[in-house]
Design a protein that fits this description.
Strand content: 15-25%
Largest sheet: 4 strands, parallel
Distance between the termini: 20 Å
Radius of gyration: 14 Å
Number of strands: 4
Shape: globular
Structural class: alpha/beta
Length: 100
Amino acid sequence: LARCNTFKRWVDQCAHSVELTLGKLPGKEDESVQYNATMYVKSIPPVQENLGKIFIDVVDSFGIQASNVPEDYEIITQNEFQSDLFPDHKTHIVEHWYNC
């Protein structure tokens, strides 16, 4: 949670047009909540239409296998080596330091 809070502080300070919410996922049937995108850290979220585009930040978790991740989910990695582990996914290399 500390990493998520740090990321949220960075977004609040540096990406003013982005609204970021931390917390529990809405229920699958909860039509009152519709996100544009959802980011999970070190885990794979359930398939839910109200989550929008899904990003998984694998950070340092090498237990997440490409074969377990739906192909339309995008992967955030720390380096090119990690990205190579997800050849069929769109990946984003982001060094995990959130500074302005």
